[in-house]
């Protein structure tokens, strides 16, 4: 077992540090960490737990700011140990969420909110609907967003969209079937959520 170099930090609660270190050792044994990885993880956990009390969670963004000598693998293992102990506050930006909001940035605010209701249900599921994969969410959103942008130039809400609008849009699409599937799903979902009276 490698020597752990204890950083020069006065801990708030030594018992808490010892508890987390013991749990990390157990993970190291179970997962077969190398001595060097174990030392990096333990040093990092000491830095983090020394300045937190036993009832405080530690932000994932704080873990990501660990000293540069901690490689990516060590950061991942530290995050896993904290999550396993229910000590992690995962405040990392969700890449898919960031992508969705970036793509919808130019959509009219009210239409954007309506679209987000649909996307959240596609992504996370609902009472009678299973959540879909990240790829499906991206594909569905990609198919609908050009239509949402076009609607934003004329309307303030999807309740104003007519059947003629949809038909006209699909007639000029390169892949009308793909767009039609996405739009049908969107309007059907919004109707079930009572955000629309009837899908166009």
- Using the CA coordinates, give the radius of gyration: 24 Å
Uncertain segments of ≥5 residues (pLDDT<50)? 1-5
Oligomer: single chain
- Give the overall form: elongated
Descriptive account of the structure:
With 200 residues, the protein is mostly helical. It contains nine helices and two strands; from the N terminus they run H-H-E-H-H-E-H-H-H-H-H. The chain folds into two domains: 14-89; 95-192, no CATH class. It has helices at 14-31, 35-50, 60-63, 72-84, 95-103, 109-124, 134-152, 163-171, 176-192; strands at residues 58-59, 88-89. The protein has a two-stranded parallel ribbon. Helix 1 packs antiparallel against helix 2 and helix 6 (109-124) packs across helix 9. The radius of gyration is 24 Å and the shape is elongated.
List keywords for this structure.
mainly alpha, disordered N terminus, 200 residues, 2% strand, two-stranded parallel ribbon, elongated
Question: What is the topological layout?
Answer:
Elements: H1 14-31, H2 35-50, E1 58-59, H3 60-63, H4 72-84, E2 88-89, H5 95-103, H6 109-124, H7 134-152, H8 163-171, H9 176-192
Parallel strand pairs: 1-2
Provide a brief overview of the structure.
With 200 residues, the chain is mostly helical. The protein is built from nine helices and two strands. The model is unreliable at 1-5 (pLDDT under 50).
